[in-house]
Amino acid sequence: MDKLFVNYFETAAIILFGVGFVTLLLHNNLIKKIIGMNIMDTAIFLFFISKGFIFGKEAPIVSDVHKGTYGYVNPVPTALMLTGIVVAVSITAFALALTVKLHEEYGTIELDEIMKIRRE
């Protein structure tokens, strides 16, 4: 139980992922599903960035004095998450564009209504 309160970034990331996952599973509205997917993406970004950060170390920007390789935080997780954010924004834009096209075609963005129309 002590580790739960020490690792509060990881705990928050797991809770956020759960909220996004439940939103993705339980709602039929496509916009709500996209929001749930974005919450899950944000949780993953928070988790990886919190794992890549080490208290007491600095960003890897050498200004006056070089502190050696152990004086800086590893920049790779942050760079990967920046790439992930760009991909997540692109996927969100694509999903919203598909939602607009589905609304134009079927007149609704509720998945159960779209499936009902498709069966008829």
What does this structure look like?
The chain has 120 residues and is mainly alpha-helical. The chain has a single domain (2-54, 67-119), classed as Helix Hairpins, CATH 1.10.287.3510. Helix content is 72%, strand content 0%. The protein is built from five helices and no strands. The longest helix is centred in the last third of the chain and has 31 residues, at 76-106. Belongs to the CPA3 antiporters (TC 2.A.63) subunit C family. It is found in: Membrane.
Helix and strand succession? HHHHH
- The whole-angstrom Rg is 20 Å
CATH architect. name: Orthogonal Bundle
- How many individual domains? 1
CATH topology grouping: Helix Hairpins
Form type: elongated
Average pLDDT score: 88
Distance between the amino and carboxyl termini = 54 Å
CATH class division:
Mainly Alpha
- Note the main sheet: none
Residue ranges: pLDDT <50 for 5 or more in a row? none
Which structural class should the secondary elements be placed in? mainly alpha
Strand content: under 5%
**Helical stretch tally:** 5
Features:
120 residues; mainly alpha; Helix Hairpins; elongated; transmembrane
Summarize the structure.
The chain has five helices and no strands. By secondary structure, it is mostly helical.
SSE topology:
Layout: H1 2-6, H2 8-26, H3 30-52, H4 76-106, H5 111-119
Keywords: Membrane, Transmembrane, Transmembrane helix
Protein name: Multisubunit sodium/proton antiporter, MrpC subunit
Main location: membrane
